[in-house]
């Protein structure tokens, strides 16, 4: 930390974004939230930027950012890299938050920002599960269903079904959790992904193996929706200002969640208590337990199912442009990361070690032994991932899932 403090510079009052009406100027973090929402950034971006600004101010002993400049920012970023040992992506995320703070919130020219070093983005190969590993994880997820609170409708958060949905469509975790009833088209066997990464919509296939399980899930969810309507519960959250344009849309069945939470919760942006979808961390914890029980030691996460989806499609012979559209990538170079699996065995090149006689590394056996088979190049794989084999196990009663 800097030993001496520079003289404080005059602090112009923070201003709300255009259209905001308030008698008092906003506090620093409130101004950050207002500017993020004015630019229609996601809730996750808002939470991340607020957290980094708070950490930056606390690092410099609660001094106002207008009193700080390039040396203080470099000291904070250097502390993250050396003391906290953060990854390059986290380093860049913190720098982006500080750039947003000075340029968009404080309206301060920062020509010295170009002199601050930026870590190079590292290319990492994705973790991919083999098809038999996917089967083992999904089988464990079938046993991890939790019932709704006592007194509520008979509803189950079908973790096995949700895992199959992520693997069978290549959706991201939040894209699957935010699915509405209206987004599933059984007639066309398609699912519309709304507001994906980059605020883009896209169309993905509805696996035939999931058609019947999804209909059963919607039947269970409809009972939950009817119970909410009978209890006079608040409508579900709608994007943008649709709740004012269509006041009763949030109460309709078509806007209800496909995977709703078991209990109502507080809206993260202060809209009161309402029923949201299943929390993302809830499924992440269940998925980690499923990996342990399945005996898989790979550092996998729910996003690994998306990597496995793309990898298995490429192994099945589908062209990379088709996979790009299904994944929603803006550039095909992003999809090219999955082509590493097509270079099995170093691009189908057999190692010279495999040509050596086994006697070079082991003494001759006491008795004559048949010669071991020579290593072969890996066989190409052209069959689609068999989703029919991934159909969920039949539903079990709550008493069987949760013994007394």
TrEMBL record:
<feature type="domain" description="Tyr recombinase">
    <location>
        <begin position="124"/>
        <end position="354"/>
    </location>
</feature>
<keyword id="KW-0233">DNA recombination</keyword>
<keyword id="KW-0229">DNA integration</keyword>
<keyword id="KW-0238">DNA-binding</keyword>
<feature type="domain" description="Core-binding (CB)">
    <location>
        <begin position="23"/>
        <end position="106"/>
    </location>
</feature>
<comment type="similarity">
    <text>Belongs to the 'phage' integrase family.</text>
</comment>
<dbReference type="InterPro" id="IPR013762">
    <property type="entry name" value="Integrase-like_cat_sf"/>
</dbReference>
<feature type="compositionally biased region" description="Pro residues">
    <location>
        <begin position="1"/>
        <end position="16"/>
    </location>
</feature>
<dbReference type="Pfam" id="PF00589">
    <property type="entry name" value="Phage_integrase"/>
</dbReference>
<dbReference type="InterPro" id="IPR050090">
    <property type="entry name" value="Tyrosine_recombinase_XerCD"/>
</dbReference>
<feature type="region of interest" description="Disordered">
    <location>
        <begin position="1"/>
        <end position="22"/>
    </location>
</feature>
<dbReference type="Pfam" id="PF13495">
    <property type="entry name" value="Phage_int_SAM_4"/>
</dbReference>
<protein>
    <submittedName>
        <fullName>Integron integrase</fullName>
    </submittedName>
</protein>
<dbReference type="InterPro" id="IPR002104">
    <property type="entry name" value="Integrase_catalytic"/>
</dbReference>
<dbReference type="InterPro" id="IPR004107">
    <property type="entry name" value="Integrase_SAM-like_N"/>
</dbReference>
<dbReference type="InterPro" id="IPR044068">
    <property type="entry name" value="CB"/>
</dbReference>
<dbReference type="GO" id="GO:0015074">
    <property type="term" value="P:DNA integration"/>
</dbReference>
<dbReference type="GO" id="GO:0006310">
    <property type="term" value="P:DNA recombination"/>
</dbReference>
<dbReference type="InterPro" id="IPR011010">
    <property type="entry name" value="DNA_brk_join_enz"/>
</dbReference>
<dbReference type="InterPro" id="IPR011946">
    <property type="entry name" value="Integrase_integron-type"/>
</dbReference>
<dbReference type="InterPro" id="IPR010998">
    <property type="entry name" value="Integrase_recombinase_N"/>
</dbReference>
<dbReference type="GO" id="GO:0003677">
    <property type="term" value="F:DNA binding"/>
</dbReference>
């Amino acid at each position: 930390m800097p030993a001496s403090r520079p003289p404080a510079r005059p602090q112009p009052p923070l201003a709300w974004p255009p259209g905001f009406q308030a008698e008092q100027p906003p506090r620093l973090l409130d101004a950050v939230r207002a500017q993020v929402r004015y630019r229609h950034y996601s809730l996750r971006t808002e939470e991340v930027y607020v957290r980094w600004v708070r950490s930056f101010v606390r690092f410099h002993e609660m001094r106002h950012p207008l009193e700080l400049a390039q040396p203080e920012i470099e000291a904070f970023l250097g502390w993250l890299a050396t003391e906290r040992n953060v990854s390059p992506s986290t380093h860049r995320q913190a720098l982006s938050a500080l750039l947003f703070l000075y340029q968009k919130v404080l309206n301060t020219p920062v020509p010295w920002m170009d002199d601050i070093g930026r870590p190079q983005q590292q290319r990492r190969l994705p973790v991919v599960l083999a098809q038999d590993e996917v089967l083992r994880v999904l089988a464990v997820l079938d046993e991890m269903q939790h019932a709704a609170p006592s007194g509520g409708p008979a509803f189950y958060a079908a973790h096995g079904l949700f895992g199959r949905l992520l693997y069978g469509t290549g959706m991201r975790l939040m894209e699957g959790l935010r699915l509405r009833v209206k987004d599933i088209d059984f007639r066309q066997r398609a699912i519309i992904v709304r507001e994906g990464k980059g605020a883009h919509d896209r169309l993905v296939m509805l696996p035939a193996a999931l058609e019947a399980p999804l209909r059963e899930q919607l039947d269970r969810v409809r009972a939950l929706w009817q119970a909410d309507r009978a209890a006079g519960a608040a409508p579900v959250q709608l994007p943008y200002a649709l709740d004012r344009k269509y006041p009763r849309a949030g109460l309709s069945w078509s806007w209800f969640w496909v995977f709703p939470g078991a209990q109502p919760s507080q809206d993260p942006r202060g809209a009161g208590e309402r029923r949201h979808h299943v929390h993302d961390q809830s499924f992440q914890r269940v998925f980690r337990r499923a990996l342990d029980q399945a005996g898989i030691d790979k550092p996998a996460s729910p996003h690994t199912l998306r990597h496995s989806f793309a990898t298995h499609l490429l192994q099945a012979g589908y062209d990379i442009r088709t996979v790009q559209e299904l994944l929603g990538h803006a550039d095909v170079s992003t999809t090219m990361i999955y082509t590493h699996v097509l270079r099995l065995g170093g691009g189908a090149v057999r190692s010279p070690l495999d040509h050596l006689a086994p006697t070079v590394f082991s003494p001759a056996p006491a008795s004559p032994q048949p010669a071991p088979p020579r290593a072969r190049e890996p066989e190409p794989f052209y069959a689609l991932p068999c989703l029919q084999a991934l159909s969920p196990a039949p539903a079990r009663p709550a008493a069987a899932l949760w013994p007394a």
